[in-house]
Automatic annotation (TrEMBL):
It comes from Salarias fasciatus. InterPro entries: Cys-rich_flank_reg_C (IPR000483), Ig-like_dom (IPR007110), Ig-like_dom_sf (IPR036179), Ig-like_fold (IPR013783), Ig_sub (IPR003599), Ig_sub2 (IPR003598), Leu-rich_rpt (IPR001611), Leu-rich_rpt_typical-subtyp (IPR003591). PROSITE patterns: IG_LIKE (PS50835). This is Immunoglobulin superfamily containing leucine-rich repeat 2. Coiled coil: none annotated. Residues 1-21 form the signal peptide. Keywords: Disulfide bond, Leucine-rich repeat, Repeat, Signal.
């Protein structure tokens, strides 16, 4: 009788156990006041629902999960260790990981992640171990790890990172192990800091012989720590004009030549930007190919402007429609520089009175027509975030 009751009781708790405590294919266990959920090697396609709310360690390793949906971990915020290695994850939705602010160990290595929701990491301030190696990640934002003060070990090796912005590791005050090897590094001026940082840091950075340049071609295969001192110079731009726009009046029909002269190493990418009326034109100059007499712009603009590879922009016949800003920009690894002129047609007294609808303020009639605006200034930028961090 007692035996039978015990049996029923056992069955009852077993059923409860399944229903309330553990997803079907997982094995849940209470040990040393910690709650484990082991769901590894189960061919799971998604994160199972119904994990115990007080679970602290969840293993989902070696399944076939290819997508992490944003609410997947919403009920298990006590988790301190989350193992997701060897799945087929391509995408992790934003906010999937952010609720796990107790997380100390996160392993998402050996997946196919291209875009990681870096903003989620900012919430994971308790992280000590972060394994992201063997994925397909390309971009590493400069502030990716900026809140991870307790992080001791970071693995981002075997990804597709071409660069690491200076300062990326500087907030990691507890870091002792860093794996970055087997990434296709572009050994340009913006990566030069890494050579010096590896040499000076106390962080252990293993497998130096696999931390090598992929580009430029002449450095392909060279260890980052052996990259020679590069010739790096921030860009500079000067715009000159014929006739000299400071000193001459510019009358209707005149041809104006604007020359953009740039400096910098590596050779900067140069472009003209023209803002006339409410139109805006961009003319990027090709950085390769022969200098020649052919304009680079096509028929849609060439009746008004001619832009040449050598940096000259010609306003063919000045009219009121060509009044506007002509700005030349040079960008390389070290930053961006810009310089421009404002072109304003000089209005002669007769034309002004005979042009209906155009009544400039009295003094601008006699005033010299061209005002220069120069917003030079070289700004050092973090690579990969060039447009957004440039301040003029
Ligand atoms: C977690 O919850 C289960 C069932 O509610 C309970 O048996 C267990 O003691 C709890 N574990 C911890 C570590 O609090
Ligand atoms: C979270 O808990 C709610 C309420 O118990 C439940 O409806 C939901 O399915 C759970 N979500 C997950 C992903 O486990
Ligand atoms: C980030 O963590 C804080 C608590 O530290 C929490 O209030 C917030 O909801 C978390 N963010 C998300 C998106 O879960
Ligand atoms: C490395 O450690 C030594 C000794 O502990 C210390 O003097 C030095 O400043 C450290 N270097 C860096 C880059 O943290
Ligand atoms: C660099 O060299 C390796 C082999 O030495 C080659 O597979 C790779 O394609 C090269 N990369 C570039 C950008 O040339
Ligand atoms: C650039 O090339 C154009 C076309 O050949 C020429 O008219 C112009 O004078 C050149 N500019 C300079 C600064 O040499
Ligand atoms: C030209 O540049 C000046 C100074 O930057 C600016 O105030 C003005 O609005 C610009 N004009 C046009 C047409 O873009």
């Amino acid at each position: 009788m007692a035996k039978r009751l015990l049996k029923i009781l056992a069955l009852w708790t077993f059923v409860i156990g399944i229903v309330q405590c553990c997803p079907e294919l997982c094995h849940c266990q209470n040990k040393f006041a910690r709650q484990f959920a082991d769901c590894a090697y189960k061919d799971l396609l998604v994160v199972p629902v119904g994990l115990p709310s007080n679970v602290t360690t969840v293993s989902l390793s070696a399944n076939k999960i290819n997508f992490l949906k944003s609410e997947s971990f919403i009920n298990i915020t006590q988790v301190t260790s989350l193992w997701l290695a060897h799945n087929e994850i391509i995408t992790i939705e934003t906010d999937t990981l952010a609720p796990l602010n107790q997380l100390r160990n996160l392993d998402i290595s050996y997946n196919k992640i291209v875009n990681f929701p870096w903003e989620d990491l900012a919430n994971l301030t308790a992280l000590q171990l972060l394994k992201m190696n063997n994925n397909e990640m390309v971009n590493l934002p400069m502030d990716a790890f900026s809140t991870l003060k307790d992080l001791r070990s970071l693995r981002i090796n075997n990804n597709k990172f071409t660069t690491i912005v200076q300062g990326t590791f500087s907030a990691l005050s507890s870091l002792s192990h860093l794996k970055i090897f087997d990434n296709p590094f572009a050994c340009s001026c913006s990566l030069e800091w890494l050579r010096d940082w590896i040499a000076a840091t106390n962080v252990s950075v293993p497998e130096l012989t696999s931390i090598v340049c992929d580009t430029p071609e002449n450095l392909n295969g060279t260890m980052v720590t052996n990259v020679p001192k590069l010739d790096c110079e921030a860009p500079a731009v000067t715009v000159t004009s014929q006739p000299n726009i400071d000193e001459s009046d510019l009358y209707e029909g005149v041809m104006v030549i604007l020359n953009c002269v740039t400096k910098g190493s590596p050779m900067p990418q140069v472009s003209w930007e023209v803002t006339v009326g409410n139109q805006n034109y961009m003319f990027p100059l090709p950085s390769t190919g022969e200098m020649n007499d052919k304009p680079i712009n096509d028929k849609t603009t060439s009746d008004r402007f001619l832009v040449f590879r050598n940096g000259s922009l010609i306003i063919r016949r000045l009219s009121e429609k060509e009044n506007g800003n002509y700005s030349c920009t040079a960008v390389n690894d070290l930053g961006k520089a810009e310089s421009g002129v404002k072109v304003v047609l000089t209005v002669s007294p007769e034309t002004s009175s005979s042009t209906p609808g155009f009544s400039p303020p009295a003094e601008s009639i006699t005033l010299s027509l061209l005002t220069i605006f120069i917003s030079s200034g070289i700004i050092h930028l973090s690579l990969g975030d060039m447009e957004s961090t440039w301040i003029s």
